[in-house]
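ok trying again, last paste got cut off:
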Amino acid sequence: MRFLPALLVDAVLVLVFAAIGRASHQEDPAGFLLTAWPFLVALLVGHAAALLLPARPRRPWSLPWGAVVWVVTVVVGMLLRLLSGDTAEVPFVIVATLVLGVFLLGWRGLTALVRRRRRHRETAAETESGLTPSTEPAAHRDAAAGQAPSDAEEDAAPAEEDAAPAEEDASASEEQPRSGGSAV
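nice, full thing came through this time. structure:
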């Protein structure tokens, strides 16, 4: 259940979205669960969708995972609001889409930025200390050191694996003799 921390952060942000919305319309902020429930249910559906996609994003805190969660949360949340007899006026749809986008993608973008800067600082520290970065792939260095590979490194791995079948496909697409005939 490696997506649970991301789900919890997203749920808190959906609750904040609902509380801010109710307060901005001078409604009782205590009733924010009435506003939030369709989006919380949709958030669960969004995480399930991201988890079950055939070409799914690999990490729940990545931007691609967040994009799936965001779109599903907005669309399913609005549908649930309508089905429950509530409204979904165009301005509300626009505001909800933008705010949930900032919330659900924003923390993931900040996480990616922090991870990238940390990697950059570690590389710079190695260079300054006179150590030369190893020529072997970072994922192999990390595995040897007992560290988990970073998002970018792990996400790049399937691309490398997919390259080999593509080369095989290219050789297989060369002209083959047809049954009953000979190759020219």
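cool. Residues 11 and 40 are 6 Å apart (CA to CA). The chain has a mean pLDDT of 77.
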